[in-house]
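Q: I'm teaching a short session on how sequence maps to structure, and I want students to see two examples side by side rather than one. Could you give me a first protein with its sequence written out and its structure tokens following it? Keep the formatting plain so it prints cleanly on a handout.
A: Of course. Example one:
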Amino acid sequence: MKPYALFGVAGLLALLLGGALLWQGARQDAGPARPAGGDFVLNSAEGAVDTLALRGQVLLVYFGYTHCPDVCPASLAAGGQALNALTPDERARVRLLMVSVDPERDSVEHLKRYTAFFHPAMSGVTGTPAQIAKVARAYGAGYLKGPVQADGSYAIDHTTATYVVDRDGKLAAVLDLGTPTAQIVSTVRKYL
């Protein structure tokens, strides 16, 4: 017996549409796929930073740029305050990495001076546009360069979260902009 003989063509189409809607609803209930994060190698003023070599440390990964007028300084200041709130032993097992999404302007030397302002244990890393895009995608971070102004300046809209990577290299948590220092510290300690 042909499937449409039992239900008719209209009934079969309704059944298929209903099944598709149920499947789509089940997918929506499951929520969006969580970014996986992952290892990367980018450049700092001290040389290549390979996150695989940082196993055993908790990483705080932030995507931003040094010409950012407000969000990046606020986020990096919060990260620096959290590092200061840790004990020296804890701090030795934590790395805060700022991944520059502006490789055109952010040289590794400039990144070093910029991140040191917020905390001496913070590192600025960058790479080619393709490398940065790949890392950002892996973490679910987004960024978009705005129009270039007459003076050559431009802004970059970007994700404002800080990504917490546990000692095994797994993306463990995402901290939103404005997360209180005490919460950043407790999150880091949870994964130490």
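Q: Perfect. Now a second example for contrast.
A: Example two:
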Amino acid sequence: MTDSPATGRCECGAVAGPLGVCVDYYYGILAEEQADPQMYRWHAPVVCAYLLQHPSRGHEKYLDVQFRWLQLYMDKGLDGLLRVQAHQVARNRHGARSGYDMAPFAAYAPLPPGKTPGPFRAAFSGLPFSDGSFVSDGHVAYGCRIEAIVEATVESWLSVQD
């Protein structure tokens, strides 16, 4: 299923919010975070959660590692995720090793095969947007909302493997 603003439903099963369906929120977040380094810290969890809630917009071969990134975030927090992210970037920059280092993700469950879960208990179209911003009530509150979306995403995907 694709996003359908006409029906007020998103591919992930969420009801459209004031800005539209999840893709409208996603692009709004990506645009806003470009001008806000503090908000940009949640870029990886935002992208991974969005693509896992809307897998038709992503690439199937990357969904497994994106699922593991979200589990790492839930386990180690934002600072832990940013450390692993810096490790991956440094590894690529120095050219010492080729390929992606999967060692930091070995402890996490692989993406369950089969059907995409949904609807998710927290989705992007449910994010508040006030005064032209997703962080009008502060970065901590924004981070808590992104964490809730991440938790809902992982929880739903894990439920399909049962």
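Q: What should students look for in example two?
A: Point them to this: The chain has a mean pLDDT of 91. Also worth mentioning: The two ends are 23 Å apart (CA to CA).
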